[in-house]
Design goal:
It comes from Ornithinimicrobium kibberense. The protein is mainly α and 139 residues long. The protein has helices at residues 2-22, 42-100, 128-136, and strands at residues 29-33, 36-40. Strand 1 (29-33) and strand 2 (36-40) form a beta hairpin. The two termini are 48 Å apart.
């Protein structure tokens, strides 16, 4: 890409050099558009077109840069919203898990005592890690 860019710059320099040499000593060009009457050398006419093209290219570049920045900001906002949603889900799950071990008014916890859980797939000597793995399945 850099090589192609350098070749284009060299081509543009060659065209400008050609315009300098080819228009040296030529008569001025007359432009008549009603109110606008100009008489200028061909080199100045060429340079005016070159400046107009440069301004148009700068405008296109600014539009592209602005669009890329807007896309980048929108992507970042979308990612931050996704992270916040996941954090909220984790907070809700953590809150739900902590209510299982919280004592109720009768003095017992909201979850069965460790080792006394009698459900499908449980054994009589279950440990706390099995209860935690049961909670992890909800994620």
């Amino acid at each position: 890409m850099i090589i192609i860019g350098l070749l284009l710059i060299l081509l543009a320099a060659a065209v400008v050099a050609y315009m300098l040499l080819a228009t040296a000593g030529t008569a001025a060009v007359s432009i008549d558009y009603g109110i606008l009457n100009l008489e200028m050398p061909p080199l100045w006419l060429y340079l005016a077109g070159l400046a107009t093209l440069a301004v148009a290219a700068l405008g296109f570049w600014m539009v592209g840069a602005g669009a890329r920045a807007k896309t980048r900001r929108a992507r970042e906002v979308r990612e931050l919203r996704k992270q916040a949603k996941e954090a909220d889900r984790r907070a809700v799950r953590t809150g739900d898990a902590s209510t299982l071990d919280r004592p109720t008014a009768s003095g017992s916890t909201g979850a069965p005592a460790r080792g006394t859980h009698s459900g499908p797939g449980s054994t009589s000597g279950s440990t706390g890690s099995q209860d935690r793995s049961r909670l992890d399945l909800d994620r």
